């Protein structure tokens, strides 16, 4: 469906694109590009291709990214492989900021600490968990608490153990953990011009006044984000808009106002940004929908100089990092009993205990006190009277070979359909917890009692025919 672009928007782009403007306008009338990323820990490219039965075209700037061909069914979000976290639906251009951050961290080595400041729904966070490796840590911050649910669901499916979450204004984080992160990713709120062909609502809400309002907000956020970067670390600023005021002008103003920062070239494979004044903003990257198979995006890579911070500031940060660590509680014993019976290799896993809930502690500290975090690690479950109830996130982390008992049902097995609809299932065997899998990876839990599997798949994840259209749309829209 073609949506008319605002005349004033087109006129503004004429100054940026020149003779390319007709090509851009023509591209704006084409269907938007869809894509996905495979979970490198869970599946190879060949395996995913075989599972989906859809030809996948590699995305040049993301080794785990693929474009979906036109006409691909829109119900991939309902696919058992999606439930098992084998892939994440994500528009190809939105894959670029995480990859560019990884370039900036290339010399850092294992154990990097990074923070995604606008993390929901999780597209960039899930990729960052792979890029920093198991010895690194990703802090996924989402200011809007109403969006934490979607973020947590996607993290549960992805199954990464090196991520923590929080919901704090960036200014609060800068106060709590100054100069604490090797890498900071700010995918800033913007006017969404790059999403016009995908989201008609963005067209209806666009105006020059909105551009200027976004630019003012972005300036404040960028200044606060810079405070989180450790000496020698990097800051990636990205938007899904074309406005120079929200992109190159923001970067030029930041480096002018903050001595000790440089703009690094991140244009490999992408168009160069527009130069603003004396600032080398042509080192920034622009992703144009008429030049590549993706939507509109802008990315800048900034590096803080390596001048050591004052010793007092570094010492204070380390005290905050170690402050208020929860002491072991009875829930820890409940977890160990469950782990010994169900997943023995995790018995000695370092944990964080909050009341009756238990989390796996990432190998690298987050740089924030645990009590600031919504999730201080991978949720393992909670202690209940007489038993330990495993978390949905633990199911997404595990595969069938790591648990004492699992059921790996194929998509055409009636028991699979019964499970995802929330039914109890006859199943012979001793009482205990069973990991239900698809393609070998955990989808959820069931508890066998009296040769019957009681279903512990969360209500929100069950197939409900009367709500299917809405659920399908929520699950299958390409996410940022």
UniProtKB/TrEMBL annotation:
<keyword id="KW-0949">S-adenosyl-L-methionine</keyword>
<feature type="binding site">
    <location>
        <position position="187"/>
    </location>
    <ligand>
        <name>S-adenosyl-L-methionine</name>
    </ligand>
</feature>
<keyword id="KW-0963">Cytoplasm</keyword>
<protein>
    <submittedName>
        <fullName>16S rRNA C967 or C1407 C5-methylase (RsmB/RsmF family)</fullName>
    </submittedName>
</protein>
<dbReference type="InterPro" id="IPR031340">
    <property type="entry name" value="RsmF_methylt_CI"/>
</dbReference>
<dbReference type="Pfam" id="PF17125">
    <property type="entry name" value="Methyltr_RsmF_N"/>
</dbReference>
<feature type="binding site">
    <location>
        <begin position="118"/>
        <end position="124"/>
    </location>
    <ligand>
        <name>S-adenosyl-L-methionine</name>
    </ligand>
</feature>
<dbReference type="InterPro" id="IPR027391">
    <property type="entry name" value="Nol1_Nop2_Fmu_2"/>
</dbReference>
<dbReference type="Pfam" id="PF17126">
    <property type="entry name" value="RsmF_methylt_CI"/>
</dbReference>
<dbReference type="InterPro" id="IPR001678">
    <property type="entry name" value="MeTrfase_RsmB-F_NOP2_dom"/>
</dbReference>
<comment type="similarity">
    <text>Belongs to the class I-like SAM-binding methyltransferase superfamily. RsmB/NOP family.</text>
</comment>
<feature type="region of interest" description="Disordered">
    <location>
        <begin position="309"/>
        <end position="333"/>
    </location>
</feature>
<dbReference type="InterPro" id="IPR029063">
    <property type="entry name" value="SAM-dependent_MTases_sf"/>
</dbReference>
<keyword id="KW-0489">Methyltransferase</keyword>
<keyword id="KW-0808">Transferase</keyword>
<dbReference type="GO" id="GO:0008173">
    <property type="term" value="F:RNA methyltransferase activity"/>
</dbReference>
<feature type="region of interest" description="Disordered">
    <location>
        <begin position="461"/>
        <end position="480"/>
    </location>
</feature>
<dbReference type="GO" id="GO:0001510">
    <property type="term" value="P:RNA methylation"/>
</dbReference>
<feature type="active site" description="Nucleophile">
    <location>
        <position position="240"/>
    </location>
</feature>
<dbReference type="InterPro" id="IPR023267">
    <property type="entry name" value="RCMT"/>
</dbReference>
<feature type="binding site">
    <location>
        <position position="142"/>
    </location>
    <ligand>
        <name>S-adenosyl-L-methionine</name>
    </ligand>
</feature>
<keyword id="KW-0694">RNA-binding</keyword>
<dbReference type="GO" id="GO:0003723">
    <property type="term" value="F:RNA binding"/>
</dbReference>
<feature type="domain" description="SAM-dependent MTase RsmB/NOP-type">
    <location>
        <begin position="24"/>
        <end position="305"/>
    </location>
</feature>
<dbReference type="Pfam" id="PF13636">
    <property type="entry name" value="Methyltranf_PUA"/>
</dbReference>
<feature type="compositionally biased region" description="Basic and acidic residues">
    <location>
        <begin position="464"/>
        <end position="480"/>
    </location>
</feature>
<dbReference type="Pfam" id="PF01189">
    <property type="entry name" value="Methyltr_RsmB-F"/>
</dbReference>
<dbReference type="InterPro" id="IPR049560">
    <property type="entry name" value="MeTrfase_RsmB-F_NOP2_cat"/>
</dbReference>
<dbReference type="InterPro" id="IPR031341">
    <property type="entry name" value="Methyltr_RsmF_N"/>
</dbReference>
